[in-house]
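Exercise 3.2. Students should predict the tertiary structure of the chain below and write it as structure tokens, then compare their answer with the key that follows.

Predict this chain's 3D structure.
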Amino acid sequence: MRKTLLLVAVITLLTACSRGRIYEEHRELANYTWNRFDNLIFETEIEDADASYDIYIAIRHITQYPYKNLMITTIMKTPSGEERFLDYDLKIRGENDKPLGKGMGDIWDINIPLRKNFKFLKPGPLIIEFENRMPRSGISGIMEIGLILEKCK
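Answer key:
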């Protein structure tokens, strides 16, 4: 009985976490450092232009990440050929300097929404580029940067 309940719980968690997710990719950063001019480019395909999408940046960092925020620019090249540039000041730490997101040991994961209910004009290739805008040549403590695209239901 215990094994059955555990199996049901695991299946429920796995399916609940990925509902609507159509794309997820992460890039590991060498030596846990994101260099200032090392832009991260993600490419995927938009197949359903009638749907709305939620776009997230996924950040994996260590507890010792030295800042409360992460400043980035996103460059989004839509399937219709439009280019959109947006600056973000992403909050990494909350009150009392506690890291936001989910943590295990010294590793923290946080998914921050960049766009909610975004509509594309037509299907085709989508390219999203993340640019580090922190005022240092390299920021340490970041293990991975990722892109998550979810289809709204």
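Discussion points: Helices lie at 2-17. Residues 4-18 have pLDDT under 50 and may be disordered.
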